[in-house]
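Appendix B, example 12.
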Amino acid sequence: MLGDRPAATVAAPEVLESDLFPVRDHLPSQRNINRHVSSKVNSGALTAPVGIYLRLDLVAVTALQTGMPRAPDATLPTRILDAAEQVVVEHGHETLNMRALAKLAGVSATTIYAHFESKAVLLRAVELRAAEKLNAEIRAIDPSLGPHETLGELGRRYIAFAEEHPRLYRLLFEGLEKHQATEEERSVLYFTYYAARNALERMAATNPSPFPPSYGAMMGWSLLHGFSTLLLGGRLQLAEGMEPEALKAMFMALYAHQPPAAS
């Protein structure tokens, strides 16, 4: 019996790692641990007290096999978001399925939930990404432009984003979950609105309007969104039998008071 043998008095960590558990890629059961210890005791190979080995739990065994715990993979959230954005871009946000997403990202569904507690939270993260893409286009507007020209350029870039990223654009408005955005999220999601309001405030400083800039910004956003949505759906083209470029020129004549170029 194991207990009949005198306990050795010299602890040797090297034996624990390289001799007791030579197969490091698999977690042995406690029964197999005991069996392996018995063989080592019988051969006289162990130099540390037998009780040390027999009392090891599976967590300790794992630590012995793999060394120090590995640091969390800092790239996981980005990988998951990249995969989720790919699904939205290719198929639309309505099709997002967490199990299918896990397979695409090369992780488990449990791992996804460890970083994004729900599908709604994950979609909000993709939505914020989409908003940042649009915001980057708006930030690139020449700051030396006057407020009137700024509004016109904002409108053109807004419509161009909707055409280039139609499913991300739809997510910005159709994928909203019924939970309040934080102040930080609002600054991202409403950046375009704030940029338009700022241009209208600059305009009002020299050309007063009976309506406050916030009113103009809301109405302008409504016009932009409505036009972009109808354009993406092909409704406007069917209504008048016009090509998208001609429709956009007509819209900008109304939105930014910029007459379309003569044909």
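The CA atoms of residues 102 and 111 lie 8 Å apart. Residues 5-28, 50-67 have pLDDT under 50 and may be disordered.
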